[in-house]
Design brief:
Distance between the termini: 37 Å
Shape: globular
Helix content: 40-55%
Radius of gyration: 17 Å
Strand order of the largest sheet: 2-1-3-4
Strand content: 15-25%
Largest sheet: 4 strands, parallel
Number of strands: 6
Length: 177
């Protein structure tokens, strides 16, 4: 989400009480670590500011962005995380490599989220130049790691709210009204 279009953060007061106990995995690509570690720090800071305990935030390093989908799958399947934040940085070069990796990573992360029915936030920058990445990793355009953490909390909040509605009404939708 672009900073100018950023969602309205409702703060931690509106978080479902179960969300604050969620186990969040953060998979961080080591490639372009100057950027990815700043994104990681932003995500971790955001989660802590919204009431998640440090012991419920699990950070794991992977070689590069291409490994993020499998890392997310490991965290959800083996690590039993409630959600994952995938953090990486792909900077366009002179070859088509950037396009292949960008497309593969984005589609694969989406598939992992759908397979496990758990939020997987896309904290992967896809930029033309290092300067653009720096602007999005704590520079003038904010920190996209924070935004990915916010997305995970919002999705976990939605999931718990829907579960509550379902439990209280027996079903969701128009049937039985």
């Amino acid at each position: 989400m672009a900073t100018s279009l950023k969602t309205q953060n409702t703060g931690d007061a509106s978080l479902h009480h179960k969300v604050k106990n969620a186990r969040i995995g953060i998979a961080v690509a080591q490639w372009n670590s100057e950027i990815t570690f700043a994104l990681r720090d932003g995500a971790k800071k955001f989660l802590a500011e919204h009431g998640l305990a440090e012991e419920n935030i699990h950070i794991h390093l992977v070689p590069g962005a291409y490994e993020l989908p499998l890392a997310a799958q490991y965290l959800l399947e083996i690590g039993n995380m409630d959600a994952v934040i995938a953090i990486g940085c792909l900077i366009k070069g002179e070859t088509p490599h950037f396009h292949y990796i960008s497309e593969s990573v984005s589609l694969s992360l989406n598939n992992v989220a759908l397979k496990y029915n758990k939020p997987v936030a896309f904290g992967v920058l896809t930029v033309d130049a290092l300067e653009q990445a720096q602007e999005r990793a704590g520079g003038k355009l904010g920190n996209k790691g924070e935004e990915a953490a916010e997305a995970v909390l919002q999705m976990l909040n939605m999931k718990e709210t829907v579960k509550d509605i379902s439990a209280n009404r027996g079903r969701i939708g128009f049937a039985g009204r």
